[in-house]
Amino acid sequence: MRKYICLWCMMCCCAIMVSAQGNDPVAWEFSSRKIADQRYEVHISALVEYPWRIYSQHTDEGGPLPTVIAFEDNKAVELQGVVEEEGSLIEKYEEIFMVDARYYQGKVDFVQQVKVDKEIPQDLAGSVTFMACSDAQCLTPQEIRFKVRLH
């Protein structure tokens, strides 16, 4: 337990120092694409500067903070399946977390298929929570809110 507290304190100190420098290595884009009648793909795309990385939605317990995508309720929009990840997934043991970590560098798309109740433009809102790390440091987790027009 003491090891985890020390690790957490070190990460917080590094994050405070880095955030004071205004470091923002991840750019996000949000879009939709019609794939059939009343069906769309919502793309939540991250462009991650080298040498930074963001983590998969699927991480082992005790590992880094996974990327979490949450959608607000909209009675006219039905989520179809789970959020898929499209990119070059890297799985590597990370000493700082003492687990195999799954992460992306460069570009990754998180894709959610949806079905709309009516063939009129709808908005789908939500948030993405993520943590960016390099080999030297991790930044404070961030939450980015978004709204995508389905048309």
UniProtKB/TrEMBL annotation:
<feature type="signal peptide">
    <location>
        <begin position="1"/>
        <end position="22"/>
    </location>
</feature>
<protein>
    <submittedName>
        <fullName>Disulphide bond corrector protein DsbC</fullName>
    </submittedName>
</protein>
<keyword id="KW-0732">Signal</keyword>
